[in-house]
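Input structure tokens:
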């Protein structure tokens, strides 16, 4: 647009702002001006001034459409260029990550990874659909421990035996666990197909509530330990069963119950193989195995690995200094 073309813009904008009726009212004012102050309508035949108006407006219309089209093309080209650049950067970044060339990621990449993992969890839950819930069979419900072979295990009497997934199978729901997460399966005994909007599923940092709207919730209580809300997900499978994955914050301990009102399971009876320790990296696996060893030692009243190290150091020092009395030395 030339400077000459836009020299009256300020005046016309000021006039247009006075017309609350918009463009029709504004054009009416212009036509009224031509009628009252000029011979525009009477100085020529109607066909002539109508043609003049059409020519002027058609010309401006073509310019407007052309400019708009160019703007759209330019915007689309810029978006394509941006998308292509981002795609290339993602691919290059992913290649670097896959090749173990970098170990740090940006906040945006972290958010994308979290979202991808969440989608994977949802797909995993959906893929596991089918079959009757374990709790529907009374024989599968976790049983209490009635006999122990070792005196050190007397404290486990009355606790429930873990199910095959290191969790617990109760009458209304079943949960399993690894060191990283807890998976919960809640079947609803209804004669109709449930929809997500029929349900109440609220996952807090240390609370869980699950049920059908308007009914007594199946679960409504405090979780055994804290979870990451943003990485915990739920899905409705086969229109009758809710599947929930809770991401543990403390990934170095077993849950003894899902919510504090549940009966306790014996974590000493948990099978570590089911937790896939082999999937962990070397350092994390060593820490987890040490934690599990220390936990068992404490339960049996025996020294932990740290206590053993201190004892070894003390014995070596005694050998080097036999003249000193260490009989009253205690470890805290």
């Amino acid at each position: 647009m030339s400077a000459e073309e836009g020299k009256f813009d300020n005046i016309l904008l000021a006039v247009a702002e006075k017309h609350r009726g918009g463009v029709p009212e504004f054009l009416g004012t212009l036509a009224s001006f031509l009628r009252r102050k000029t011979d525009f309508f009477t100085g020529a035949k109607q066909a002539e001034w109508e043609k003049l108006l059409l020519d002027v407006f058609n010309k401006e219309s073509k310019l407007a459409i052309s400019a708009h089209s160019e703007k759209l093309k330019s915007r689309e080209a810029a978006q394509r260029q941006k998308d292509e650049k981002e795609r290339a950067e993602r691919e290059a970044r992913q290649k670097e990550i896959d090749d173990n060339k970098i170990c740090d990621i940006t906040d945006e990449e972290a958010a994308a990874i979290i979202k991808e993992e969440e989608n994977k969890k949802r797909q995993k839950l959906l893929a596991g659909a089918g079959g009757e819930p374990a709790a529907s069979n009374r024989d599968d419900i976790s049983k209490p421990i009635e006999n122990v072979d070792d005196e050190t295990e007397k404290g486990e009497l009355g606790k429930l035996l873990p199910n095959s997934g290191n969790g617990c199978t109760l009458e209304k729901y079943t949960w399993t666990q690894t060191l990283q997460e807890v998976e919960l399966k809640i079947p609803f005994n209804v004669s109709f197909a449930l929809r997500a909007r029929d349900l109440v599923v609220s996952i807090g940092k240390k609370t869980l509530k699950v049920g059908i709207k308007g009914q007594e919730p199946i679960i409504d209580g405090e979780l055994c330990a804290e979870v990451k809300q943003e990485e915990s997900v739920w899905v409705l499978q086969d229109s009758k069963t809710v599947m929930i994955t809770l991401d543990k914050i403390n990934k170095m301990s077993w849950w003894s119950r899902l919510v504090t009102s549940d009966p306790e399971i014996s974590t000493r009876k948990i099978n570590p193989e089911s937790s896939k320790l082999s999937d962990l990296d070397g350092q994390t696996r060593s820490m987890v195995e040490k934690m599990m060893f220390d936990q068992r030692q404490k339960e049996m009243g025996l020294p932990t690995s740290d206590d053993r190290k201190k004892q070894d150091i003390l014995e070596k020092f005694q050998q080097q200094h036999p003249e000193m009395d260490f009989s009253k030395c205690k470890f805290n």
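The longest strand covers residues 227-237. The CA atoms of residues 9 and 119 lie 54 Å apart.
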